[in-house]
Structures are given as C-alpha cells and as structure tokens.
Fold this protein.
Amino acid sequence: MVRVFAFPGQGSQARGMGAGLFDEFPEHVRRADAILGYSIQDLCLDDNAGRLLSTRYTQPALFTVNALSFLKRRLAGEPMPDAFVGHSLGEYNALFAAGAFDFETGLRLVQKRGELMAEAAPGGMAAVLGLTAERVRQILTASGLRDIDVANYNGPTQTIIAGPRGSLEAAETWFCDDEVSYIPLNVSAAFHSRQMLAMIGEFAHFLEGFDYGPLRIPVIANVDAQPYVDGGIVSRLTAQVWKPVLWEDCIRTLIARGPLQFEEVGPGTVLTGLVSAIVREREPVAGPRAAQSAKVHGAIS
C-alpha cells in the first residue's frame, strides 16, 4: 500500500476554510500576517471584500490552510506518507511538507507567484468534461484556435483549457454535445499556458534567491509526473507556471508503485474525486502518456 498526501490548488478555496486551525497555530498565523501585510485568518474565515477569488490572495490563503492542515496531522502523531503530490499551487505544500523549505519561505514563494500571475495578460480557462484529452486536442486543432493550450490533464474525461477569453468563447461551439460539458472557470488569466511565459524570467530570478533543502519524502512533479530531484526545484517550479499540470500522469506514477491510500490534505475533496476516476481506469503506466502530453504542449506553444 502506497500512502499519499495530496494538497489541492486553486478552485478548492472557500470562505470559512481553515476554521479551527488558526487558533491552534498562532505563531504561524503571526508570521503569515507579517509577510503578507494583512490578516490571513480574516481573509480565510470572513473574506468580507471577496478577495478569495483573486489569485494574488487565493494562493497565499490556500498555501497557509494546506500547510496548517498538514502540521495538525503531524502534531497529532500521524506518520509521514510514502509520497507527496500537489495540484498546481498545492505542489508548494508538497515541497514544504517534504522539507524543501520552511513555512515562511513557501509563503513568500506563493505570494510572489500569485502577484505575478494576477498581473498576467487577461485570459481565461474552461473545463471540458466528458471527453478524453486526446479528443479535446483533436477538436482544438480542427477549430483553428491555435492560441488555446491544454492547461490541466485532470482525469480520463476532465481536461482544462486556457487562452484568450475571445478564443475560449469561440471554442465553446466546438464542444456542443449532449455528452459534453463546457464550463468557463472564474479565473482572471490563462494559467498553465503560454500566456504565463512573460512572468517566468522574473519568477525564476525570485526563486533563485532562496535555499532549498533535500527532500525527506518523494514529491511527484506536475510538469513531468516524475519525482523531484535535489537541485531541480527552481527549474521545475518555473516551468510549472506555464506548462500543463499532468495530474492524471502524477497519479498513474503513484499507482505504478502499488495500491494507493490517498489522503487529501486541505479544504475540499476535489482531488479525491479526480483520483477515484483515474484509479477506476486501472492503467498504472505513466511514462508514455506524460511524454506525449509534454510533446503536444510544446508543439502548441
């Protein structure tokens, strides 16, 4: 049995998340407030200004709640898992939990990431449900909408696409089918797409300003569905901003190691549902699909 802790990313945030955690970790809350310049507890619990929908606030908020959720498990005496994985922003929590950096460093990294992503050119994302990723790519090619990228390979029949809003609106007509759902997402930019390329130089420079420790537990990376190696954190986190999240392949990599004991650490159960769909396919081979996904994305970009 392979025990895996997984941390969610954007989309799992909700007002009231972290209730009870902030009182248990007052020192972490104090440090977070000092770094961010606002009350992380007020943001997560009350969000009177509706800022949780803005990525510059969503990312620090989710990182904090995910991190405190993990620390609560450790404080309760739970043993470490066999591996960590995180979806997009959640990958920073996986690296924190594995020992790559401390809480404050992780928070500074996601704060900068959120700020830069919030300043990206306007764009959007949409979920395509009911089709395989291969079929989604075929339809995008047929549509001629070459400025749309696949952003997330989430599961056997869930794919997220990203690009300019006008193109995403035009794409919807290509996915009109009784068996298909096309759902525009409430985001301000085209994350995990070529539209993020403008920020990677500044973000890479920022990442290089920190020291990273060796990982105590394997972390599966979004960009290639393979374990992180020491010394590869900056390059992978830089690439992760604009390359697609190979979530399905990450889970297949873990399935190849043995039956999964999957535990979602943080708010919501989005990842648990995705993993259940992937496991039902019972295809534990990761490599070829991951390579194909990377190749296709590179060709589009």
About this structure: Residues 55-75 form the longest helix (21 residues).
